Amino acid sequence: MAGMDVRISSSAGFCWGVERALEVARNAAAEARGPIKTLGPLIHNPMVIAELQSRGVGVITSPEEAASGTVILRSHGVPRETKEQLEASNLTVLDATCRFVRSAQEKAAQLKDQGYLVVILGERDHPEVLALKSYAGARSLVAEDPDDLPARLPGNRIGVVVQTTQSQERLSRLVAYLAPRSRELLVYNTICSATEQRQAAALSMAEDVDVVLVVGGRNSGNTRRLAEMCSSVQPRTYHVESPSEIQDEWFTGAHTVGLTAGASTPAEQIKAVARRVREIDP
User: Fold this and answer.
1) pLDDT tens for residues 209-224?
2) In the chain, what are the helix, strand and coil shares in percent, each to the nearest 5?
3) What is the reported pTM?
C-alpha cells in the first residue's frame, strides 16, 4: 500500500550454517551420483525443502531407508549412534551439521566424560536437542524452563549446554535456578552468534513499529522464538510462512510494519511477504 513503511530487520534470514547446508545439498544434487537423501529435513523451512526435492534431494526419517547413494546429515545434527551407523555403511555421508551445533555436541560429550550431570537447555523433541542428548549421555536432563527439572537433581556437579537457538534470557533463568542447587556448575553458552544477532535486532525493531511479521517455518524453533520475543514487545506480532497467510485486518490503523525472519528463511520469502504487505490498504 502507498505510504506503508515496511522495515526489514537488520539481521534476518539465512545464517552461515543454513547457507553451508544448502550448498552441500545443491552441490550433491548437481553431481547426481545416485540417490540423494537428507536424514530428516535439511532445515526447518517447507519452501526450501520443496525446492530441494525439485532438484532430486529427498528426505528420509531413518538410515534404514537409504539403500544406496548419498545421505546428508541435517544442519541440526543427528544422534551420535546414527552418525556412526551411517559412516560404517557403504553410503556416501555428507555432514552438513552447523559448526555451532557441532561445538555444542563436543561440549556435551566433554561434560559427560568429566562426570558432570548434563542439563540441556532446549526443546525436548527438537532434532538438535535429541542429537545433543546422545552426546550428553542417558543421565542428561532436558529443560526449557527450570520447572521442567525434577525437584531433586540426581547430582550436584552440573554442566549446562544450550540448544543453539535458545535465548540468553532463558539461559540466565536456568543458571540462576541451578547455581544454589549445585556444588559445582559449569556452563557452556552454546547459543550461536547468528541467533543472538537476530533476536537483538528483532526486539529493537519491534519497539518502533505498529505490526511485526515473523517469516519462516512453523517447525523452526528459532523462528518461533523470534515470534515469542517480538510479541512481548509488540502484541500485534504474527508468524507467517507465506504471503497467502496475511490478513488485511491485521494492519488496521498501522503505519509501520516490521519484518524479521528465522535463520532458515530465504531472502525471497521475506521479499514476497514485504510485497504483499505493501499491497494492503489498512
Assistant:
1) 999 999 999 988 889 9
2) 45, 20, 35
3) 0.87
